Amino acid sequence: MEFNHASKKIPNSSTHSITMSAITITVEQKTTRLDGASTSTRACIRVPTGPQPPAPSNAFIRCKCGHVTVEFTAKKAKVALECCCVDCFAKNEYYAGLGGPQLPPRFANRELPLVLNYWDNCLKVTGKDKLAFTKIREGCASTNAIASCCNTVMFIDHPAYAGNGVMTFNTIVPAQNAEECKARLRVYTADYPADRLAKLPELPNAWKDPATGAFTGTGDWPTEFGAWAETMKGMSSSDGESFSDLMAAAGGFTVLGLPEGDESCTKQYTASA
Ligand SMILES: [Zn+2]
Ligand SMILES: [Zn+2]
Predict the structure, then answer these.
(1) Ligand 2 centre and the CA of 91: distance in Å?
(2) Spacing, Cα 23 to ligand 1 middle (Å)
């Protein structure tokens, strides 16, 4: 068992007092099998010690290790969507593979689409020294803010938000101190396995027709799509730090170069054309 000081601060004074906000304990367990081979597993536990930062008064998300906290402007997201697109799954699976938060099994197995929450683009961030920005491939519209300390996908920007809002993956990094915002529209459903889609609860569906590039859908999708767009237009970026402020401070984004998933309806259409 080893102890590491997660953060220590030595103020510039003659008393040399040391304050710690947490210690991290690493526990290693070695198991020896009957055939003599041994395996070991490690677990890290973060134990708060000193005075903790005050709890945010609005909804917030925190990265897996606790270093990065992002507070929003309200307790409830402004709007929510369910998303079936290959890229939302791909980026979360990529970072989960690097040790980030795992997708809950029913989502990993494509039994349920991911729930996206949208918030004002006015962010109060602690631990922003660990924020890094990525796109999953060249030309991708979305830009991802990642907590690089633990590979947590924190929040997303997309040109369709026009700088007014940011999106979070509430399924994987749930907002804390928050009221639930229910999705009224499911998008990019053409990327989702058809047999799984048929089993999902009833909700208007919308997807981009790869032949025309225009959205189409089922149920009253135009009303719900319009409501989402109106809400995005009314969101604010006037206080706090915006996505672009934070990305500029971090020195821009890097491109991961992940391939587009085979379930992508656009990819399938292009291959068959
Ligand atoms: Zn972290
Ligand atoms: Zn998506």
Answers:
(1) 10
(2) 15
- pLDDT, tens digit (0-9, with 9 covering 90-100), for 165-185: 999 999 999 999 999 999 999
The domain segmentation of the chain, as residue ranges, is 2-48, 60-272
Closest CA to 176 of 50, 67, 72: 72
Instruction: Determine the pLDDT at residue 18.
Output: 42
| Spacing, Cα 153 to ligand 1 middle (Å) | 10
- Select 60-272's CATH number: 1.25.40, 3.30.70, 3.30.420, 3.90.1590: 3.90.1590
The three-class DSSP label of residue 124 is strand
Question: How many Å lie between the centroid of ligand 2 and the Cα of residue 42?
Answer: 33
pLDDT in tens, 61-88: 999 999 999 999 999 999 999 999 999 9
Residue 178 contacts residue 73 (beta carbons within 8 Å): no
Residues 6+ apart with CB under 8 A from 13: none
pLDDT tops 60 at residue 232: yes
- Cβ atoms within 10 Å, residue 176: 13
Ligand nearest to C-alpha 70: 1
Amino acid at the residue 270: T
Q: Could you say which DSSP state residue 123 is in?
A: B
